[in-house]
Amino acid sequence: MKIGFIGVGNMAKAIINGWLTYGEVKAQDIFVHSAHAQNYRKYAFENHLEPVDSNSELANQAEVIFLAVKPTVLPSVLAEIKEAVTTQKRVLVSMVSGVSLAEIKASLGAGNHELLRIMPNINVELHAGMTALAKGEFLSEAHFDELQGLLNQLGKTTLLPEKDFSTFVALAGSSPAFIYLFIDAMARAGVKYGLTKKQATQIAAQAVWGSAAKVLGTPKTPWDLIDEVSSPGGTTVAGLLAMEDAGFMSAVVKGIDATIAKDQEKH
Ligand SMILES: NC(=O)C1=CN([C@@H]2O[C@H](COP(=O)(O)OP(=O)(O)OC[C@H]3O[C@@H](n4cnc5c(N)ncnc54)[C@H](OP(=O)(O)O)[C@@H]3O)[C@@H](O)[C@H]2O)C=CC1
Ligand SMILES: O=C(O)[C@@H]1CCC=N1
């Protein structure tokens, strides 16, 4: 399957790098175009991908087209590729946050366009991603199975109604940044008590990684696990109560609220 990427920024590169690392998709089957020739040509050259001169030419060459541009750029991109997508019956996969399948369909005009909306996160590069999928009404089962198979190789996927995509953006699309913030805050506290930033960051990141693995591998709830770590009269409960006193849980929920509100703003 020949796969094209319109936009080769952070998210597109994470997906492409994830596939290339384990050879799931051949480099010569990946076509790329972005706003600046020096960017997409350099990346294509370094990774033996196929650079293409325009969005419309990419739509002529690739059977499946991943839309990996910012929401504000999407309307002009869809206008450029509309003819090729319609006449050549291309499959479109949009990872653009806040833009529904209905909006994409409306921009493309008449035709039974095969569409898939996805919301990946940056961890796909390490095959530890979390990606939501919403099928367009005309997407064939065969194309859906093939694309889900490719995305499953990059981590976990889940089918999700589009109405829940904004919540998913907060919990998985944007949340790596929130978790980096938590790791950095822990590490900074380590520095306060004399550790080097490098060592403190490694210690905090390993603790987060192991804790996430534990949550994923047990039927117990996080609350059960919190109790297992909290010895009576011990250090953990003292730390937990001080964090809650400073509003830890409501700070997290406020961050999620703001992320969802931003995703739902019209562009
Ligand atoms: N970053 C993330 O973790 C996630 C991002 N997303 C979504 O993915 C999309 C891309 O995000 P991200 O990769 O972070 O953004 P970046 O800013 O890193 O990349 C945007 C890309 O769009 C390209 N571009 C801009 N204008 C055009 C155009 N007219 N035609 C073709 N390409 C164009 C840019 O080109 P150039 O490089 O040449 O300037 C760049 O490669 C967004 O909609 C975002 O919501 C979804 C989930 C997670
Ligand atoms: O910040 C953003 O808008 C995108 C969506 C999810 C992650 N990055």
TrEMBL record:
Domain Pyrroline-5-carboxylate reductase catalytic N-terminal positions: 2-97
GO molecular function: pyrroline-5-carboxylate reductase activity
One GO process term, biological-process aspect: L-proline biosynthetic process
Pyrroline-5-carboxylate reductase dimerisation domain span: 162-265
Subcellular compartments: Cytoplasm
Positions of NADP(+) binding: I6, G7, V8, G9, N10, M11, S34, A68, V69, K70, P71
InterPro entries cross-referenced by the UniProt entry: 6-PGluconate_DH-like_C_sf, NAD(P)-bd_dom_sf, P5C_Rdtase_cat_N, P5CR-like_CS, P5CR_dimer, Pyrroline-COOH_reductase
Pfam families the UniProt entry points to: F420_oxidored, P5CR_dimer
UniProt xrefs under SUPFAM superfamilies: 6-phosphogluconate dehydrogenase C-terminal domain-like (SSF48179), NAD(P)-binding Rossmann-fold domains (SSF51735)
PANTHER family xref list: PYRROLINE-5-CARBOXYLATE REDUCTASE, PYRROLINE-5-CARBOXYLATE REDUCTASE 3
Function in brief: Catalyzes the reduction of 1-pyrroline-5-carboxylate (PCA) to L-proline.
Family the entry assigns: Belongs to the pyrroline-5-carboxylate reductase family.
Official protein name in the record: Pyrroline-5-carboxylate reductase
UniProt organism field: Liquorilactobacillus satsumensis DSM 16230 = JCM 12392
Gene expressing this chain: proC
